[in-house]
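REQUEST ID: PR-0412
SUBMITTED BY: lab tech R.K.
PRIORITY: routine
TASK: structure prediction, single protein chain
INPUT:
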Amino acid sequence: MTILNRFYASSGSEVLIKTLEVKVGDSTYWLTNGWDDITATLENGVQVTFEACGIELSLPARNADGTQDLKFAICNIDGKVSNTIRAALDGQEIGTLTYRHYLSTDLSAPESPPFTLTIKSGYWTPIVVQITAGYMNVLDSAWPRNRYTLPDYPGLRYIS
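STATUS: complete
OUTPUT:
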């Protein structure tokens, strides 16, 4: 039984540490939920320090509706991250968000493979930023990709 499986199955001394890497253009922010900064090793062996701040995450649902979004809220007291994300959204720049989680007893690598999402939208108040990031939205993309329709691919009718 792996440590992560045991962690989910029963309580232990470990704590799950959720981290975010927000990358827009040349700016990269490393954030973690809590009161203390942590230094952890990424999946490529590079050590980074995640800055402690208030973060609330809502992980993507595992469903087949075509939109799997991660919603997160971060503290906006200093405004650094929110200003960067706002500028990216206004300027049509692509910003990415990478979610990783670690166990407090092992910061040598993420406990599961990280996933990277594209920042889609957000809104701001003086104290909090709420951002939505997601995988490629399959429902809103058609051209120049092939569209698998019944007239062109009649065998689709029989796929269950």
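NOTES: The radius of gyration is 19 Å.
REVIEWED BY: pending
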